[in-house]
């Protein structure tokens, strides 16, 4: 427990400090009660109630930048947690059959409560070694090509596709550019509009720009309450528009990247509420909520004729960000 | 040439001369502009303003602008140093353009098509809701009228001021291109200096043919971001058009002075016209008649006039796309 707390502080969750102090106090009282055989249950209960209300208060009042920090929390459930806790079977499928097996995206066949689907997800890794191997969730073109190859297999097998989005962004590197990072992402986006099986996408942590969208064209797109989805990282935005990397908090606010903002602008279909105090406080609880969402969406989408599904998928993204129409209807100039 | 020895801009009478960004030569502005902003000395292709690109590409008098009244809104209330709404107004005034994309129909050596051109001068050619919508409508127009679409990219990427709305324009543009492709339509992407970020990672990379101008910077991440990430200097020529060609990412590199003929040729291949004839400059086209060919959409997909309206025969596509 105390290990978790100190690592949380290291992770920069300063706004959690009062909560952690209170948790420590409760812990101390418990120890004291045990050692002295005093009855402190009343005090402990009261403190616990206060902790709950304060946690709720802190998490209800998170700034966009604080949400970004929560979304990046090391103990937040990642794709690997969902795979481990949510599925009855997972059979990983590797490689793009062209260049390599990008560890930053995991793909494989999954069964969950009797339903089979193709799972595609960004993988960040937990240990330092894992994180390095997964390139911190920043995929290369081979990752996107692997994802597309497996999605095409899903189409052939007539099983739905479920994608988990959790990436700071596609990797900006020499090899990535040489092998066509932009083209790989664009190809995926285009191809997903034609895949003749239902697609569900869940943003579980970071929805980093094109790297997220490359596996993000879902018939239903859900986002966890404290996850974010953005055109650019707050740090990147701050560096470009403010010319100062330390303006990330301002940039995060300006970008309107929170789940509530996305819902408001019609860019996601649903916000999945997180357990009290964020997903990292209750990994299993979070996984259960996501699982329930996926299950209900899977059965909902299974009812739709495929042509309707494709038409709705097209229409949904086609309608995002419709600009204002001026006075004249169409042609300016000769008309 | 003696004048290439001039180096300091202030030595030149105001605006008459321009210095090449690449080789440093001093270029006489009038000549430079008549060469469509290509350096006479080293061949460096400067970024071409959107309207000049239209002029370069479309047959004279054939371009009819569409959707020019679409305007962006500041839906997020985005403020960095100035509010986005203010920035939009200022940029509209400065550039005389509504946004960073110009779309219309035209003919190229007599071949009707839809032309979409990005304008870098408008907030770095960034893609927000208007650019995304115009690309989508350009593609849909091509689909309706069964004519090719040419999209000329010139952009720093998505428009941050519109947040995730701008991100979703990647999806929007690709959605329409997916439809066009499924219907057998034909699209050409011309990537010019610079084409990066969300534009490269969406419509610009998924057209049937990918053409680049010489020396154009084309990539997903900007070179500065990459250099900062990997903490290394980037190899010479990295992310340039020639680099992309060598790495197998694009079909062709076409110098600006040959671009129009090349586009005509490629469209001739795609639409069953004589390619040799299409490559030749046609006699001056008459100003285009107005009425959009409503009947065009009803024609059978892929089937064109038997008469093969060549570039020189004065007969425009019966599909009426010149409207």
Kindly describe this structure.
The complex is a heterodimer of chains A (335) and B (323). Chain A has helices spanning 2-10, 17-36, 41-60, 64-71, 79-86, 128-133, 141-157, 174-178, 181-192, 209-213, 234-242, 248-255, 259-264, 283-302, 306-318; strands spanning 89-92, 105-112, 115-122, 161-167, 199-208, 220-224, 228-230, 270-272. In chain A, 50% of the residues lie in helices and 14% in strands. Chain B has two domains: 14-44, no CATH class; 48-271, 2-enoyl-CoA Hydratase, Chain A, domain 1. Chain B contains ten helices and ten strands. Chain B has helices spanning 29-34, 50-57, 84-95, 129-145, 163-182, 197-200, 223-230, 241-246, 256-271, 275-279, and strands spanning 17-19, 26-28, 64-66, 101-108, 111-118, 149-155, 187-196, 209-212, 218-219, 252-253. In chain B, strands 3, 4, 5, 6, 7, 8, 9 and 10 form an eight-stranded mixed β-sheet that branches. In chain B, strand 5, helix 4 and strand 6 form a beta-alpha-beta unit. The longest helix of chain B has 20 residues, at 163-182. The termini of chain B are far apart. In chain B, 52% of the residues are buried.
